[in-house]
Amino acid sequence: MARVVRFHRHGGPEVLCIETVDVPPPARGELQVRVRALGLNRAEALLRRGTYIETATFPSGLGLEAAGLVEVVGEDVTGFAPGDAVSIVPPLSMVRWPAYAELATFPAELVVKHPPELGFEVAAAVWMQYLTAYGALVDIAGLGRGELVAITAASSSVGLAAIQIANRIGAVPVALTRTSSKQAALRDAGAAHVIASDEEDIGGRLAEVAGPNGLRVVFDAVGGPAFEPLTAAMSRGGILIEYGGLSPAPTPFPLFNVLTKSLVLRGYLVHEIIRDPVRLANAKAFVLDGLSDGALKPVIARTFRFEDIVEAHRFLESNEQFGKIVVTI
Asked: Angle at the Cα of 46 (from 187 to 298), degrees rounded to 5?
């Protein structure tokens, strides 16, 4: 028996409940993990509300990231033993492999022996943010040394991961955040330039930062009206990678900018990295190297207890966090 978080209907954080259930043994090719910490992601709030790309089957579990100790090694799994400290690459389905549990099961290929110097809280905050940012900036855009990259929602865990990755490869991160309240923190986190999108002229500031040549790469989680000034500041042949849709406003298609500059507007989900063994192996190597050399350091916004999962989700939806929300068990 183990405690798990489930929900029986769509709704706000209050629909989450902790239940005690029987946990079946891992299937062939799977590992069972005694979870010590969870990393929270906006996708989990979307699944809970019924607006995610995956459909919940009630009663539904949820959760994409965890760290803990291997409890049971399934059949045909090698390289792991009970007691190994591990963290989890987000599975393709959190309904099939939910992480919010004391005892959780995952495909073995998504389980990573994390660097021993990482504690469980930090290890639970690694994979979603760094795989998402790496896949966009390095794997797809080929961001290079000296290039500027505009990063929206920069105070999110993925935004901060993108800043760190840009710095690690010698690029220049330009952070966009809604208000000036997080400007100092973003500069301390490594942003070369910070733009408060609700208080400043985005197009004018980006033009000032990038100069007449513009930016080749934009990494956007927001969409909405900012598409126009973002694409206006881009260079010919530039690429805008869209991985979210935080703006409640419609997203206009910037036809004139796309045509005159031959821009690429590219939708992206981290699943395309996770489901490709070669690309995933390259991404994991990059992230593990960055963790080891100190260039990549997960930022923890706040830590909650497992019993306070409802409050953790309320904080997740407040947009007040700077970095990753972690829940400990």
From this structure: 30
What is the pLDDT at residue 320? 84
What's the predicted TM-score (pTM) here?
A: 0.94
DSSP strand pairing (103-107 vs 30-39): antiparallel
**Quick one: 167 exposed, middle or buried, by C-beta within 10 A (0-12, 13-18, 19+)?**
middle
Determine the longest span between alpha carbons in the chain, in angstroms.
Answer: 62
Q: Domains along the chain?
A: 2-126+298-328 (3.90.180.10), 129-271 (3.40.50.720)
Q: What pLDDT digit, counting tens, does each position of 238-289 carry?
A: 999 999 888 889 999 999 999 999 999 999 999 999 999 999 999 999 999 9
Alpha helices in the chain (DSSP H): 42-49, 120-123, 127-134, 157-168, 183-188, 202-210, 227-232, 255-261, 271-274, 277-293, 309-316
Q: Residues near 187 by Cβ (< 8 Å), separated by ≥ 6?
A: 194
DSSP 36-70: EEEE--HHHHHHHHT-SSS---SSB---SEEEEEE
Smallest Cα–Cα separation from 290: which of 86, 114, 153? 114
Average pLDDT, the chain: 95
SS3 string, 257-282, reads: HHHHHCCEEEECCCHHHHCCHHHHHH
Question: For residue 266, what are the β-bridge partners?
Answer: 241
CA distance 106 to 151: 32
pLDDT band for position 198 (cuts 50, 70, 90): confident
